[in-house]
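User: Here's a chain of 361 residues. Predict its fold as tokens.
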Amino acid sequence: MINKNNYIVNTTNILKNVHTISKVVGGKVKICAIVKADAYGMGMTSVVQALKGEVDYFGVASIVEAMALRVVDKVTPVLVLGEVNLDLIDWCAESSVRVTISNLEELDYIESHLNDKVLRIHLAVNTGLNRIGFRSVVAFKRAIDKINKSNVMILDGCFTHFATKANDEDFIENQHKKFENFIKLMPNDSIIHDANSYTALNYKSFYHNMVRPGFAIYGYHKCDYKLFPALTITSEIINITNVRLGESVGYDRTFVALHNMRIAVVPVGYADGLDRRLSNNFYLLVNGHKANIVGNICMDVVLIDVTYIPYVYVGSKVTILGSDGAEVLTPFDYAKALSTSPYEVLLKFNHKRMNYKVLSE
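Assistant: Prediction complete.
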């Protein structure tokens, strides 16, 4: 089967979104662009190349991701936001990669194992997400003292992660108040950051001197500012079948035609990230119209109803994510249908099975 599926990343839109965020937070506030999970599925290499020189930091989840990033950009500071593999701290020190430390034991290990190198450290604070980070101000103070006395460690910054967004702003406020008890112990030149996309665009008091936008960079954060979606996914109709009243469509016969229908075959399936739970429960876009998914989504194809959509033929474009005429399909639409996160929706689409393209206008 010829690959008709196109996964198109618009890096110009990503750059526009970064400029918008930078304008909102002000020129004195650093931008740490989050490019973990292959830049939210957009392709880390393409995104980092587009943002080199435009952001102050890149944020990743692991040292493995930092290694992949350093192939593309050897200069911009990189922060590993997750727990680190301490066996790789020598590489981090050599490569200007900052690491996250959550406890005193990790500092002891670094002190005893790092030789003739200096490692920059950001201390994580647990203010309510309960994932990683210092909970005790006393232990946090001991960590600062230990780093300041060390010849192989430099205290670069401090951060926390918010556990919620607009659905619970009181909890955000409480987390920030807890965070303030820790950051007042930090040196004046430290990089302090807690603002994600939501708080960076809504809470000026949370900026400190760096923000960490992720979803907003890719244009999918709902806010009062104009953001540009970075990803479009399209395919083509490869076959059209006339189905008669009473005939079933697809595996397991979950759909039976209530009238004569035109059913189009699109070569994208759950192996490509089109969740099988969308069977008989969602739609794609054809010629600016919604074309309902009928029958069970297959591994490699999906069937859609084009009975009442005009001018549909083999080769007609199908929009899986993006806009077509007045209609738009977003990760939020998928997330609502699946009762999941739009983040998961983005990451499920498998660009390795599609024609990956980078659009730079």
